Amino acid sequence: MPKPVIAIVGRPNVGKSTIFNRIVGERVSIVEDIPGITRDRIYSSAEWLDHDFNIIDTGGIEIGDEPFLEQIRQQAEVAIDEADVIIFMVNGREGITAADEEVAKMLYRSKKPVVLAVNKVDNPEQMVNIYDFYALGFGEPIGISGAHGLGLGDLLDEAAKHFPDEDEQEYDESTIKFSLIGRPNVGKSSLVNAILGRERVIVSDIAGTTRDAIDTPFTKDGQDYVIIDTAGIRKKGKVYESTEKYSVLRALRAIDRSDVVLVVIDGEEGIIEQDKKIAGYAHEAGRAVVIVVNKWDAVEKDEKTMREFEQKIRDHFLFLSYAPIVFVSAKTKQRLQKLFPVINTVAENHSMRIKTNILNEVIVDAVAMNPTPTDKGRRLKINYATQVAVKPPAIVLFVNDPELLHFSYRRFLENRIRETFGFLGTPVRIIARKKNE
Ligand SMILES: Nc1nc2c(ncn2[C@@H]2O[C@H](COP(=O)(O)OP(=O)(O)OP(=O)(O)O)[C@@H](O)[C@H]2O)c(=O)[nH]1
Ligand SMILES: Nc1nc2c(ncn2[C@@H]2O[C@H](COP(=O)(O)OP(=O)(O)OP(=O)(O)O)[C@@H](O)[C@H]2O)c(=O)[nH]1
């Protein structure tokens, strides 16, 4: 079941990003920070009571040099296209403006559920102002204050009422969901077409397998797959589609629903900074990752070329050292058959479970080989290890003091675990907890 998506729309300065940040909250990331990813976020997962959802701040999508009103219209369109529920935000201190009315008209036509939020209602006296906004035609306005964090519970309660039916059918557990991400022009659409075209796959055309019509389910050699939200299949031509923030948003949404992410790189052009950023998203999200170097047909090669390119990738993507690399050509279909065995392997590793006793043997051996570090006279003591999650595998170490598990020792343990269990293609999370916690 894909997570429901809420999008916030409204003209500039009504407080969208303030509310977005409030709802998302401060998230403590257990993975290392990759520069440039978490800054000015417009898309994030969030929770409210027992609801898990994703939220988009459409205000963060800047659309070139379009005029003011057109920008707002485009942002509203993103909300309409991407969201299950729209939070339409207005400013309780300013009353209804022409821009508000413009957005209202679009939302009204869209037939998506809309919850009207009147922001900057910082104290109860200002509550009376919210009723003017009934005139926008979206039922009862909800007064909120981003500055003071008021009313957000009511707002999210109302939004959650419109979340799609949770028992709608998603894919079978055994289905491998994968997406192709990469900067424009690396050949994502060509690869999708090559995969679906030649690889003797059976594309199922069952309508309504999912509410996301951009998924393509197919079967190959008895294994079910779904390609999630790839550039080639979706409709093109909208103005905002060419903006960078929007393509990031699409990539994040696709990653979010995938088990395996194929990070596509242009073999002809080589690696650029943007590739790194995109690869970082997949890593941060904890997905299994395969690096696919496309357009290999167009590269002049000798016997060293592939190894050198591999080394370049390793140097640039230090955080993806676990990801296998596959060289292909969508154009000539060369080496394309190498892709599926790799996808299958990394998907399997991504959901691998290790028995606790075996895991602990490995940890004990590792500690015997390379004693735990000491800090200020205290030695790290690992009492017990257990795997607490899959997709990606997460291992909790119960220790005397989590602060003593330094980066280098953590990496040493991770490497030992990887060597033993072969977690090719998947991140492995190691979390230190204080014993008895
Ligand atoms: N008094 C008051 N001010 C608020 C509240 N929420 C946000 N603001 C202020 O309103 C201004 C705009 O807030 P933002 O969150 O940047 O607004 P936005 O809608 O994301 O704006 P754009 O990014 O331009 O689309 C900031 O100065 C906020 O501090 C609120 O509840 N009460
Ligand atoms: N030589 C060569 N060219 C390729 C290959 N794959 C794609 N191309 C070319 O690269 C260009 C971009 O391909 P697309 O498949 O549209 O790339 P994309 O990543 O989907 O692009 P966006 O939709 O803009 O994100 C096209 O001109 C393709 O013909 C390949 O394997 N070899």
From TrEMBL:
InterPro entries: G_ENGA, GTP-bd, GTPase_Der, KH_dom-like, KH_dom-like_a/b, P-loop_NTPase, Small_GTP-bd. Pfam families: KH_dom-like (PF14714), MMR_HSR1 (PF01926). The keyword Repeat applies. GTP 2 binds at residues 182-189, 229-233, 294-297. GTP 1 binds at residues 10-17, 57-61, 119-122. One of its GO terms (biological process) is ribosome biogenesis. Associates with the 50S ribosomal subunit. PANTHER family: GTPASE DER. Belongs to the TRAFAC class TrmE-Era-EngA-EngB-Septin-like GTPase superfamily. EngA (Der) GTPase family. This is GTPase Der. It comes from Exobacillus caeni.
